[in-house]
Amino acid sequence: MRVEEDRQASVGVCHVRGQPKIIFGGIIELRRLQAQQLRRLPVRKPFSDEVVLSFSMKIGVLSDTHAAGASDIPTEVFEAFRDVELILHAGDIIELAVIDGLEELAPVRAVYGNMDPPATREALPDKTIIQAEGKRIGLIHGSGGPLGIHNRVRAKFDDVDMIVFGHSHRPINETVDGVLMFNPGSPTDLHFAPYRSFGIISIEGDEILATIVPLD
Q1: Rounded distance, CA 120 to CA 168, Å?
Q2: Residue 150 buriedness (CB in 10 A; 0-12 / 13-18 / 19+)
Q3: How many angstroms separate the CA atoms of 113 and 93, rounded?
Q4: How many CB atoms lie within 10 A of CB 79?
Q5: In 68-178, which ranges are E strands?
Q6: Which tens digits make up the pLDDT trace of 46-99?
Q7: Local structure of residue 118 (DSSP, 8 states)
Q8: 3-state class of 102 per DSSP?
Q9: In terms of pLDDT, which residue wins out, 10 or 58?
């Protein structure tokens, strides 16, 4: 609970039976002697690479949306992301309006891809590492042909538990050299992908469960 005080009220201090009281416009409010007895609910802040959360977590995962805005993304994605705590986007977003729309659901961490325009590239990194529930998740778009792409992106990160990537539009969910490699596919591509898809990551304790969710 956020604690606020009305600073515009007239303030006076009196003591009754040794306990300090604060007078606000004639209303006496008892205060506790020790500040540590006040409890506050956490205030939600934008997700950052330095945050390490302390409970189980559900993460929505996208890549290769190739969209002008959030309205171009299938409604099934938004329905599935209603209860996620974080959204990862692995690039080829196209317009930053996509990120703005997704942030109405949850904080977004994203990287740019090879097809993203200059404005999107300037706003986003080419790769990053997110810490969540004590797990280190690498996020990158990827490059080159689809054959062997998971090995190429694996070489871009050290000391991670999982790597989320895109570029090929082909879903991948497998382990390489002890690291979970996860490509959610594309939720919008009807030409190069075997089917449209997105991903869900669930972190529970020491376990990471990644799921490809087909749309077709």
Answers
A1: 20
A2: buried
A3: 7
A4: 9
A5: 86-89, 108-110, 127-132, 135-140, 162-164, 172-176
A6: 444 544 444 689 999 999 999 999 999 999 999 999 999 999 999 999 999 999
A7: H
A8: helix
A9: 58
